[in-house]
């Protein structure tokens, strides 16, 4: 078998992070920063995994027997159907922890075992343009890429193997976004992986990494593609403060349980912010009044940010510093993703010159932060084979 490669985009959440876990509407768009995974079958009945972005792991080899012999392996995977995404058996997770105590590897090995049943050996390399643990959905793009290549390698197709998913013409290297049924299968398997990463993920991160472009999301109704988003200028700044999305998500859940009368109004107001954003997008499509759109978006950024910090408690002094620096340039910012560090998004003004952007980036750099150049609305997961 020749190699199979998948790339999956990261994302920014414009509005609604954490509130989406509470069942509210969030709006997310994909980024041009992507995770790439390449898989080649080997004849050594082993899994050779190369994760250069995880220095504590690096490159290691697992004999498939060391996984197959885990006590609950057989009961966990033997009855599985690759077309039916299944949540990980908690017993199996604790046994994987005996094998290796790095959470991301539990996610990888869970997806590998449940989708492939450890029947064949592979050399796998995964790396990303995304900062890890920074609110740009690196975990989701990690899961989406893994699921895409494994389902492809084992010819597991929700569509039964349509022409879009199974190019037979060997003359050219096929590079395709899988068909929608296959995208939905990848998305659902990825959500199972995100459950290990995030504990209680809403599903928005894996949805936008799978489908790309922009979408609205609620836990009840899932995703709805956004057919149009205005050409907003967004600067992404990484505070370089690492944090655990799982801990932050759990913290908001516990705070809501403890103070429902205080937190539910916060979530309801964030829902209103998301809805007002959608209305402002539609208004702009009709009246082309960018000034009015910018003014509304700046207010929505400020409100959502302060509700995340004051209401959900997911701020951080480094985030405050980034917001303050951008404010000194007359700009409005909000944390994106789980918070507690990670990334901040800043709404650039239409008339901002490159010189002004460079000065802003220099001020942020001098304060110890790193600004990322990325465009929004990239395509979703893509497979080359
Ligand atoms: N390129 C990568 N290589 C290895 N592991 C990765 C990579 N990207 C993400 N991960 C996994 O995802 C975890 C980060 O997930 P999370 O805390 O949700 O951050 P994010 O906000 O980036 O999604 C990492 O700790 C690691 O386990
Ligand atoms: C905080 C949350 O709304 C988004 C998490 O984003 P990230 O993993 O920090 O990129 C959690 C979720 O929706 O699963
Ligand atoms: Mg994540």
UniProtKB/TrEMBL annotation:
Q: Which PANTHER family match?
A: MEVALONATE KINASE
User: Origin, by domain of life?
Assistant: Eukaryota
Keyword set, alphabetical order: ATP-binding, Cytoplasm, Kinase, Lipid biosynthesis, Lipid metabolism, Magnesium, Metal-binding, Nucleotide-binding, Steroid biosynthesis, Steroid metabolism, Sterol biosynthesis, Sterol metabolism, Transferase
**Which residue intervals define the domain GHMP kinase C-terminal in the entry?**
288-356
Q: Which GO terms describe its cellular component?
A: cytosol
Listed under catalytic activity are: (R)-mevalonate + ATP = (R)-5-phosphomevalonate + ADP + H(+)
Asked whether the keyword Lipid biosynthesis is assigned, the reply is yes
Question: Under which name does UniProt file this protein?
Answer: Mevalonate kinase
Residue stretches making up the GHMP kinase N-terminal domain? 117-155
One Pfam match, given by its short name, reads GHMP_kinases_C
EC annotation from Swiss-Prot or TrEMBL = 2.7.1.36
Q: In which pathway does it act?
A: Isoprenoid biosynthesis; isopentenyl diphosphate biosynthesis via mevalonate pathway; isopentenyl diphosphate from (R)-mevalonate: step 1/3
Source organism of the structure: Tieghemostelium lacteum (Slime mold)
Which family does the UniProt entry place this protein in? Answer: Belongs to the GHMP kinase family. Mevalonate kinase subfamily.
A single GO molecular-function term is: mevalonate kinase activity
What GO terms describe the biological role, i.e. biological process, of this protein? isopentenyl diphosphate biosynthetic process, mevalonate pathway; sterol biosynthetic process
The reply to whether Iron figures as a keyword in the UniProt entry is: no
Cellular location(s): Cytoplasm
């Amino acid at each position: 078998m020749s190699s199979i490669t998948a790339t999956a985009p990261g994302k920014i959440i414009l509005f609604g992070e954490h509130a989406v876990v509470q069942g509210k509407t969030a709006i997310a768009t994909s980024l041009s920063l992507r995770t790439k995974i390449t898989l080649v079958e080997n004849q050594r009945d082993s899994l050779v995994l190369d994760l250069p972005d995880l220095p504590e792991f690096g490159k290691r080899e697992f004999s498939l027997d060391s996984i197959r012999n885990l006590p609950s392996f057989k009961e966990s995977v033997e009855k599985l159907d690759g077309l039916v995404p299944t949540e990980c058996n908690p017993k199996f997770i604790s046994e994987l922890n005996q094998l290796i105590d790095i959470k991301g590897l539990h996610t990888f090995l869970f997806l590998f075992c449940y989708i492939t049943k450890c029947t064949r050996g592979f050399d796998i390399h995964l790396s990303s343009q995304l900062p890890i643990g920074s609110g740009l959905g690196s975990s989701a793009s990690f899961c989406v890429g893994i699921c895409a290549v494994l389902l492809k390698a084992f010819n597991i197709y929700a569509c039964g193997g349509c022409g879009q998913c199974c190019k037979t013409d060997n003359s050219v290297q096929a590079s395709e976004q899988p068909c929608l049924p296959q995208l939905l299968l990848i998305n659902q398997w990825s959500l199972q992986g995100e459950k290990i990463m995030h504990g209680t993920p809403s599903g928005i991160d894996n949805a936008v990494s799978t489908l790309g472009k922009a979408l609205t999301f609620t836990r009840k109704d899932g995703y709805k593609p956004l057919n149009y988003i205005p050409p907003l200028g967004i600067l992404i700044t990484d505070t370089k403060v690492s944090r655990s999305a799982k801990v932050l998500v759990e913290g908001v859940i516990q705070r809501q349980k403890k103070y429902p009368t205080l937190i539910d109004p916060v979530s309801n107001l964030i829902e209103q912010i998301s809805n007002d954003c959608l209305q402002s997008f539609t208004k702009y499509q009709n009246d082309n009044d960018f000034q009015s759109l910018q003014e509304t978006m700046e207010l929505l950024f400020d409100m959502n940010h302060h509700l995340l910090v004051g209401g959900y408690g997911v701020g951080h002094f480094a985030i405050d510093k980034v917001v303050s620096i951008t404010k000194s340039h007359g700009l409005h910012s909000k944390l994106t993703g789980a918070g507690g560090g990670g990334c901040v998004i800043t709404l650039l003004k239409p008339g901002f010159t490159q010189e002004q952007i460079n000065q802003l980036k220099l001020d942020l750099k001098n304060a110890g932060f790193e600004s990322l150049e990325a465009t929004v609305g990239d395509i979703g997961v893509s497979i080359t084979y």
